[in-house]
Amino acid sequence: TGGAATGNSGHGVNALVESTVIGVSVSDNGADGIHLASGGNNNAINCAGGSNGAANISGCADGNGCHQNYLP
Length: 72
Hints:
The chain is mostly beta strands. 0% of the residues lie in helices and 36% in strands. The protein is built from no helices and 9 strands. It has strands at residues 4-6, 13-15, 20-22, 25-27, 34-36, 43-45, 48-50, 57-58, 65-67. The strands form 3 sheets. Strands 1-4-7 form a 3-stranded parallel beta sheet, with no helix packed on it. Strands 2-5-8 form a 3-stranded parallel beta sheet, with no helix packed on it. The protein is globular. The two termini are 20 Å apart. The mean pLDDT is 96.
């Protein structure tokens, strides 16, 4: 909950199984800003950021939930 993940060479946040990421700012990461593993029952809520190397957030439609995020 809270904080920032910036300037990482890979994913800023890597949620694997039953994780909830709340209010994290992600930017300038080499891969996804937030990566939600497929089928992991993960959630990303109220997160923000941009300018990540791959997607700003990935995995929302793969058994995970994404709610009220601003990741253009």
